[in-house]
Amino acid sequence: MLTTNLLLASLLPLIQAEETVLGVFIFHRHGDRTTKSYAPTTLTDLGYVQVHESGSFYRDRYVSSDASSKIYGLSTDVVKTSQLNVEAPVDTVLQNSASGFLQGLYPPVGATLGTQKLGNGSEVETPLGGYQLIPVNSLASASSSANSENTAWLQGSSGCGNAIVSSNNYFFSEPYLAKLNSTADFYRSIQPVVNGTFTSATNTFKNAYSVYDFVHVSVIHNQSSSIPSDDLLTQETLFQLQTLADVHEFNLAYNESDSIRAIAGSTLAAQIVENLNATITGNSKVPVAIQFGAYASFLSFFGLAQLPKVSENFTGVVDYASSMTFELVTNATVSNTSYPSVDDISVRFLFSNGSASENQLTAYPLFGQSEAVLPWKTFTEQMDKFAIGSQVTWCSKCGNSTGVCASADATTSGSPTSASPTSSPSGGGISKAVAGVIGAFVTLAVIFGLEALIMLVAGLRLVSKKRLSAGQVAEGASSPMAKA
């Protein structure tokens, strides 16, 4: 007995040192969708598969009984909706992507768990093999558009005046004008492919993402025989289209000397802190927050968090079903009677370019730090430098004075976030009401290039798109991220 006790005592430090995941915040892009050149844009079967498989991956990581990083206290098989906070803008592609993801996270439970006994002694079985209903909360964009994925420039939905001006300024910058001129011949060379959808005036670098989206969808979902002049679409040409779209979109989403351009990343940062903060203050009562949003929110946040310093691939548009995850972790003892103090809690950032089921979820250091796991205090201090989490602050930064901003109390403090987990979450990160106003998941503002969306009837039957090269983001990788 003495020997056994001594053995247990020697193992105790190891047991206590085992990492526990207290909660997570997942920001996820929608799955493969139809081209934006022809509305309405819809989630494709391929996109449905992508987000479902991503949900299954996260189930294996966080939810199932044998999960590799089981979240403390999280229900394993039958979902407890009170433990989840799932949100997506009012958009059919994003809402359906969220639903598909949740089906993978909590799949049907079968007849045994999906059967309920009634008071009269009879039993009722849940339809569809125990299909679990999980609500997705709606976040309206500032433009109140029900289909923001139908527009090429998601930035316009932010409603932030100064962000619109900032993004528009890119179109007058020397780098943009130089790229516009240097690529003119390249775009002219593929005009036969896009005739009927883009004119010679709109088939330019000004509409780099729209042109890329149109061509890429066609290549992925159509036989080459149905693509006009398909011989022009060599691998080199497709890669060039992808690279130019990368440059175009990153510069509209982020500018190091003009932070307001990254309004999407700033509001997202406040959402991240608010949700993680709520997990801590609630002792992991709501340990999982999942939000679906647009690719430009990724780009804005990447820039603000200094991730391009880790790899230049963080300057490319993320692929469909990409996700970034923030894990709250601790090595302290966690039980019903013992919850770690904030000094014992850290945050790990992970990212997968494309569905995490196919592309490795990898940890990366944020804010120019050397470590991938940061103390909670360090994490929130860094996020607070650029997070915008109150209506007053947002109105002030955006220069807006009408609508909801007309009634904002100018004397109210505009503190971006509250890093202290002892404070109320509503006093820190962005509230649900504010999120509905500022469109946290759609990006800053640019309305140039809208003419590319008013398309004539085309000869192509285009249904969806997926990125060209599924190169995983990693330091030193040579190929840029595939397009969204």
TrEMBL record:
InterPro entries: His_Pase_clade-2 (IPR000560), His_PPase_superfam (IPR029033), Histidine_acid_phosphatase (IPR050645). Keywords: Membrane, Signal, Transmembrane, Transmembrane helix. Pfam families: His_Phos_2. The chain crosses the membrane at residues 433-458. It comes from the Eukaryota. One of its GO terms (molecular function) is phosphatase activity. Residues 1-17 form the signal peptide. Coiled coil: none annotated. Belongs to the histidine acid phosphatase family. This is Histidine acid phosphatase-like protein. It comes from Amylocarpus encephaloides.
